[in-house]
Design brief:
Strand content: 5-15%
Strand order of the largest sheet: 1-3-2
Helix content: 40-55%
Largest sheet: 3 strands, mixed
Order of helices and strands: HHEEEHHHH
Length: about 210
C-alpha cells in the first residue's frame, strides 16, 4: 500500500470516500471498506489496527471509542424502529458516519493522540455526514451494477439517500430537545444546560449545511 492515505484527512469528504471506496467496486459492502480503512491506519501507524463494530440493545447513542490498537464503533440498535429495512439502512448510514470520523482523525492515530467525540466541531460532524453520504452513494451504485449480488435495501434512488440522512440528524435534534426540556422541568439551571444547548446548535448547523450543500 503506497502513501496515498497519508493525507486522506485533508481531502474533501467526496474525495476521501472515492479513494477509500474505489479499491474494488465489486465489494459493495461496508465490511470491505472497514478492512481497507484498517489497512490504511496500519500502514500509517506501522502496526496492525482493528476497527470493531457492535450493534446491540442498550447502546442509546452511536459513537466511537478510540484505543491504541483498535477503534470500537458502537451503534444504536434502533429497537424502536419497526421497519426492519429502514432500521438496517439507518444503521448503515450511521456506521458510514463513524467511519468518516476515523478518516478525519486518521493523522491523529499515527501517534495515538487523544480523540474525544465530545470535542467534535460542527465542521467535523458536517464532514463525517457528507463522507457517509458519498460513501453510501458509491456503494449503492456498486450494488446496482452487480446484479448477482444485488441488495435492494442498500440501493438508493435519487434524493432518497439525502432525505434518509436528514431524518437521522433531525432525530438527533429532537432527542437533544427532549433531554433539555426534561432537565428544565427538573429545575436545572440555564448555565448547566449550556453544553446541551451548544450541542443542539451544532447539530442544527450541520443539518442546515447538509440541506443546502448535498
Amino acid at each position: 500500500m503506497d502513501n496515498k492515505y497519508e493525507d486522506i484527512h485533508l481531502k474533501s469528504p467526496q474525495e476521501a470516500a472515492l479513494l477509500i471506496a474505489n479499491i474494488d467496486l465489486k465489494n459493495s459492502y461496508l465490511a470491505h471498506t472497514i478492512r481497507e480503512i484498517e489497512e490504511a491506519i496500519s500502514h500509517i501507524r506501522k502496526q496492525h489496527y482493528r476497527v470493531v463494530t457492535r450493534v446491540r440493545e442498550g447502546i442509546t447513542k452511536s459513537g466511537s471509542v478510540f484505543k491504541e490498537r483498535c477503534c470500537h464503533i458502537l451503534l444504536d440498535s434502533l429497537r424502536e424502529c419497526v421497519d426492519e429495512d429502514m432500521k438496517d439502512r439507518k444503521i448503515r448510514l450511521t456506521l458510514a458516519h463513524e467511519l468518516g470520523h476515523i478518516i478525519r482523525n486518521i493523522n491523529k492515530l499515527k501517534n495515538f493522540e487523544d480523540i474525544d467525540e465530545k470535542t467534535y466541531t460542527a465542521e467535523e460532524e458536517d464532514y463525517a455526514w457528507k463522507f457517509a453520504y458519498y460513501l453510501t452513494d458509491i456503494k449503492s451504485e456498486g450494488h446496482k451494477d452487480n446484479i448477482q449480488r444485488r441488495c435492494k435495501n442498500f440501493i438508493y434512488e435519487s434524493g432518497q439517500l439525502k432525505q434518509e440522512l436528514i431524518s437521522i440528524i433531525e432525530k438527533q435534534i429532537r432527542d437533544i430537545c427532549e433531554i433539555i426540556e426534561k432537565k428544565r422541568k427538573e429545575g436545572v439551571s440555564a448555565s448547566a444546560l449550556k453544553d446541551l444547548c451548544d450541542q443542539k446548535q451544532k447539530t442544527e448547523d450541520v443539518l442546515n449545511s447538509i440541506q443546502n450543500s448535498l
